[in-house]
Amino acid sequence: MTDGRSTPLSHTARFECDALAIRGARALVGEMLTREGWAPLDVERARLVVSELVANAVVHARSPFTLSYSYDGVLRVGVTDDDPRSDPHPKDAEPRSYRRHGPAAGGRDQPRLGRPIAPPRARPCGACSSPSTTGRWRPAAARDRDDRP
Amino acid sequence: MTANFPGTFDHDDPRRAAELAALDGFILEAELLDDDRVRLSPCGELDMLTVPALQQRVEGFLSEHATVVIDLSRLTFVDSAGMRALLLAHGTGKVELKDPSPVVLQTFEVAKVAALLLGDRAPG
């Protein structure tokens, strides 16, 4: 993110693995950018980025983390967790799996709020004769065509 | 989500969720518009800490009223957890979202959900 300013700055802060640290981290960055005179909506964009990065460290890595940010014409924000087991690694996709890939719109809150989302069923694909088991999103027209008895 | 580390909320522990929400001054004001409609005005930051409090109130009102109108004008922050909660609530067809604050609207636009959540009320 850039704003055309020239004052360089950098800072590093340590946080414990605590859900409240998410708020602390974004407040820290928000206050710093506000103090530097950034436009409010730009500050909010930066706070959103920080919040999402820190939430990943707290919720998924479950470890203390370091927040670093610097500005040298471009604002750079980094969050590094301490869990060596949480290094990024590829995951094998399960053809019939509809969880843990992409947004969890059918997650644990689904039965309470929102429309139920059923797992994808094996059905003929509109473009070929092989069953479509990947759960890929298809255009509504294709779905209607396939769903006809 | 389980409480394996300090400060973590548990979706199944309403009291804990409410405590954490209260820590940051998150307020949910409700107003009965008529027999079928309730307006809910969250004030503060809607994130993974405060989402359970909002969900509980929405669910409670939907069990007694046909429509819940969520006034977003006093929200000062929404993260992906908050957006997900709003998307799920909107998906029931019984929740109407209105008057997003500039911060909330910007976040909706970044996530490309402004038109979906706000319909005709979305700018542009």
What does this structure look like?
The complex is a heterodimer of chains A (about 150) and B (about 120). Chain A is built from three helices and five strands, in the order βααββββα. Chain A has a three-stranded antiparallel beta sheet, covered by helices on one side. In chain A, a hairpin with a 6-residue loop joins β4 and β5. The N and C termini of chain A lie far apart (about 50 Å). Chain B has one domain: STAS domain (Transcription Regulator spoIIAA, 2-Layer Sandwich), CATH 3.30.750.24. In chain B, α1 packs across α2 and α2 packs parallel to α3. In chain B, strands 1, 2, 3, 4 and 5 form a five-stranded mixed beta sheet that branches. Chain B is built from five helices and five strands. At the A-B interface, α1 and α2 of A face α2, α3 and α4 of B.
pLDDT < 50 stretches of chain A: 101-141
Ends of chain B: how far apart? 37 Å
- CATH secondary-structure class of chain B: Alpha Beta
Strand order in space, largest sheet of chain A: 1-2-3
How much of the sequence lies in strands of chain A comes to 15-25%
Structural domain tally of chain A: 2
Average of the residue pLDDT scores of chain A: 69
Task: Work out the radius of gyration of chain B.
Answer: 14 Å
Q: Low-confidence segments of chain B, ≥5 residues, pLDDT <50?
A: 1-12
For this structure, the CATH topology of chain B is: Transcription Regulator spoIIAA
CATH superfamily caption of the largest domain in chain A? Histidine kinase-like ATPase, C-terminal domain
The number of distinct structural domains of chain B comes to: 1
| Rg of chain A, Å, rounded | 22 Å
**Major protein interface:** A-B, 31 and 34 residues
Main beta sheet of chain A: strand number and arrangement? 3 strands, antiparallel
What distance lies between the first and last C-alpha atoms of chain A, to the nearest angstrom?
Answer: 52 Å
Which of globular, elongated, flat, extended, rod-shaped describes the shape of chain B?
Answer: globular
CATH-level-2 architecture of the largest domain in chain A: 2-Layer Sandwich
- Regarding quaternary structure, how should these chains be classified? heterodimer
CATH topology of the largest domain in chain A: Heat Shock Protein 90
